[in-house]
Amino acid sequence: LYDAAYFMGSVQIRNMATLGGNVANASPAADTPPALASLETIVVAASPEGERRCSIEEIILNSGKSALGCDEFIKCFEIPISKNRVSAFKKIGSRSEMSIARLNMAISAEYDKSHFASVRLYIGTLGHPAQGCAHSEAAIEKGGESCLDMLKKALADFTEEKIPGRATLPYKRSAIQALGEDTFSLLESRAKGGYAI
User: Which of 176, 181, 175, 90 is nearest to 140 (CA)?
Assistant: First the structure.
């Protein structure tokens, strides 16, 4: 989540923006929804009738549309803490800051003795702010020498499924594999005690 917030917009925008606004706006290029979803974040929405709790996936219906009622606002987020969980976020844009993401990705996982488990991988910008990719998660959990190749193939297949026929498909199919490799590399580094961004 730190990664996503750090690279979102300019310093001036970050000083004015809120996580709630980024989620409620439901832009497919928003940076924080994939990070929040990967961390199993619960959204607490409030209205005159009371409060309700839902996941990021439940609050964001599709590109540009949230499940918030006209009398609701996002009161807070609840992010469960796990001692063995590591996470990473990366994006591709024309610049690292102040640019709308062309692709973004967040991964979180539990790490124990060189093995990843309970992997949650979410992708933004493929027509939706935060979509989970189960085959990519399974590739990371399986591990081994073929892990990275399986991850890249799963991401390429996922891209073809989500934006078939789009003019940007060849670019995004290639770019998402590089993004997956970079994000997974950062996750591995942090799992082994590194703190690079």
Answer: 181
